[in-house]
């Protein structure tokens, strides 16, 4: 199996400055390569510049600017050029599919935070020595940086990435040949229904409380954002106070993100430990959180009818705060590693279908929490009904597969 390990780096002051310079110079290389592609297409009879052409220029670029480009790993610079090439490939794919293209953009200071080393031992080296001394990772141009390794690394290290998140630095190891750590069979199968009032409800009737990390920190975050908004546009990103205010907002968002990820990991681990099969809804979170389309007023030109955008914005915020997509991804990864099975099922009408006789009606969902079948009178918690229907659909899928 392929697994990724993310560890916190503890660089010295000098190493932190070197890491920042490494990001700066790779970002400069990315932006320069993007500018070359744009200029070639606009001014040279729509000439297309590809990755191979730009990679061949790296040797000359490093010789011309040894202080900023020559000091870093050649392979990591190639990976940066491949990153740009993938961005253009995705752009042309979207154009061909008649989707919103999204032309590759120049990267600002806060929008280029990762440098990738494609091979362990080429410009970087993961120190896999025993734990009798601190773990370190060697990076060309930076040195041996101390790593807070909180768990053992298994498998073979393939690629190493260095990432900045706020004022923290992380190393991410992509490993293959990672052995599975199968758990003993539990003999249990469960269906789960994702929600907003409760984070999830199981077919056994258990409710997992939604912690609402964003809502819990909304006051502090709003205050930090108001302070950031007091700076005039011409002073933004130019003064020390503005940069400090922006870092404060970013720090709060990073804390919320870490809290949410920790909750997702612990919840997924509990489900995996207690059940052999976990069934869940196949959710399209991106589609569910789209803003409603504006409704033009046919009687008055230039006016629009109410489309419920304000109420939908609140629901979208709650869905994104719960982080369903991230949780289901974590659940699938942990299940694969533990030898468990996850089954995604069709999410339509799971909370409107009577689990007793299969009657489907919108009126069955009386309130957010209450379900009562209009045909047979069966009543229960709506989320519990949804989880039960998810489990039933997973059973049908298992029977069909068998």
Tell me the radius of gyration.
26 Å
Distance between the termini: 25 Å
DSSP helical segment count: 11
Order of strands in the sheet with the most strands? 2-6-7-1-5-4-3
Give the helix level as a range of percent.
40-55%
Structure explained in plain terms:
- The chain has 402 residues and is of the alpha+beta class.
- The chain has two domains: 3-176, no CATH class; 189-401, no CATH class.
- The protein is built from eleven helices and 16 strands.
- It has helices spanning 13-43, 51-56, 58-64, 74-96, 213-216, 218-229, 240-274, 285-288, 309-322, 324-338, 382-401; strands at 3-10, 114-117, 124-126, 135-139, 143-148, 156-165, 168-176, 189-194, 198-202, 207-209, 277-282, 295-296, 304-305, 341-346, 370-372, 379-381.
- The strands form four sheets. It has a seven-stranded antiparallel sheet with strand order 2-6-7-1-5-4-3. Strands 10-9-8-11-14 form a five-stranded mixed sheet. Strands 12-13 form a two-stranded antiparallel sheet.
- β4 and β5 form a beta hairpin.
- α1 (13-43) packs across α4.
- It is globular and about 80 Å long.
- The model has no long low-confidence stretch (mean pLDDT 91).
């Amino acid at each position: 199996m392929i697994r990724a390990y993310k560890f916190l780096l503890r660089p010295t002051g000098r190493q932190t400055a070197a890491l920042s310079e490494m990001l700066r110079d790779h970002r400069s290389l990315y932006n320069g390569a993007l500018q070359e592609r744009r200029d070639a297409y606009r001014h040279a009879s729509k000439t297309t510049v590809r990755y191979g052409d730009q990679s061949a220029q790296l040797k000359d670029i490093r010789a011309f600017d040894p202080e900023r480009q020559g000091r870093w790993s050649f392979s990591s610079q190639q990976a940066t050029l491949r990153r740009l090439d993938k961005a253009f490939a995705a752009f042309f794919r979207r154009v061909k599919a008649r989707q919103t293209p999204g032309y590759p953009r120049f990267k600002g200071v806060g929008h280029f935070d990762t440098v990738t080393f494609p091979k362990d031992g080429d410009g970087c080296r993961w120190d896999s020595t025993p734990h009798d001394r601190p773990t370190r990772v060697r990076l060309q141009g930076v040195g041996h940086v101390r790593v807070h390794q909180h768990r053992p690394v298994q498998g073979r290290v393939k690629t190493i990435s260095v990432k900045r998140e706020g004022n923290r630095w992380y190393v991410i190891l992509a490993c293959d040949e990672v052995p599975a750590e199968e758990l003993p069979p539990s003999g249990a199968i469960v269906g789960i229904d994702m929600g907003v009032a409760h984070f999830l409800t199981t077919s056994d009737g258990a409710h997992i409380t939604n912690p609402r990390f964003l809502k819990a920190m909304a006051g502090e975050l709003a205050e930090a954002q108001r302070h950031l908004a007091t700076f005039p546009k011409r002073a933004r990103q130019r003064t020390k106070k503005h940069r400090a205010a922006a870092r404060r907002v970013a720090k709060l968002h990073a804390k919320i993100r870490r809290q949410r990820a920790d909750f997702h990991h612990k919840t997924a681990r509990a489900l995996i430990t207690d059940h052999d099969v976990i069934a869940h809804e196949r959710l399209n979170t991106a589609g569910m959180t789209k803003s409603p389309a504006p409704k033009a007023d046919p009687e008055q030109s230039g006016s629009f009818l109410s489309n419920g955008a304000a109420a939908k914005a609140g629901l979208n915020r709650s869905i994104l705060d719960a982080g369903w997509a991230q949780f289901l991804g974590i659940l699938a990864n942990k299940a694969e590693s533990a030898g468990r099975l996850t089954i995604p099922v069709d999410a339509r009408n799971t909370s409107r279908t009577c689990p007793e006789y299969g009657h489907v009606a919108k009126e069955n969902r009386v309130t957010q929490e209450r379900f009562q079948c209009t045909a047979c009178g069966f009543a229960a918690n709506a989320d519990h009904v949804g989880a039960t229907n998810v489990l039933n659909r997973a059973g049908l899928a298992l029977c069909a597969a068998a």
